[in-house]
Structures are given as C-alpha cells and as structure tokens.
C-alpha cells in the first residue's frame, strides 16, 4: 500500500491538528489532469465501507479500494523547499507523469 516518509508523516500530523473533527487523510485517484489520472488528498471525518486504513502513528491515511490498485507501492514525501516544495508522489505504477507531479497515467 502507500508509504509515507517521516517528513510526510510529520506534515500530515501538523495539518491534521488544524482539522480536529477530520482526523483521517484520504488519499485517492480521480480522472483528470494533464495525464489522465490525478492524486487527491483531503481530510475526512471517518472511513467508508471498503476503505483501507494505513496507520503511521501520528498520521492516519485512508485509501478507497479502487484507488489502492493505482497507489500500491507509492511513496509520499514532503519537502518544505521554496521551489518545488510540498507533497510529492513517487508511484511505481505510473508509466508517465506530468512535470508538476500531480497527474499520471498507467
């Protein structure tokens, strides 16, 4: 399933503090973007039936079963660099991705 680096776990935990009623980070895939599929992330109140919960201690990540097929083996990192900073997905299932790293194709 998806793996978060220590930097990503720390950032998710810090962001979750601002969303006390939404403790879970939902990571998913949707159609769109310049390469056909886009990564989506948002904080949610609870899991839905069929969701996969990945517990990183300080951070709780939820992935729906359909998105899990595309995210298997993906690493999520975070950088606070001024240029190209933010969350970055490294997805071994992607055959191509856009330069911004927010969309991909399989």
UniProtKB/TrEMBL annotation:
Span of domain Core: 2-102
InterPro entries: ATAP (IPR016092), ATAP_core_dom (IPR000361), FeS_cluster_insertion_CS (IPR017870), HesB-like_dom_sf (IPR035903), IscA_plant_cyanobact (IPR031108)
Biological process terms in GO annotation: iron-sulfur cluster assembly
Source superkingdom: Bacteria
Pfam families assigned to the protein according to its UniProt record, in alphabetical order: Fe-S_biosyn
Example of a GO MF term: protein-macromolecule adaptor activity
Protein name: Iron-sulfur cluster assembly accessory protein
UniProt organism field: Pelagicoccus enzymogenes
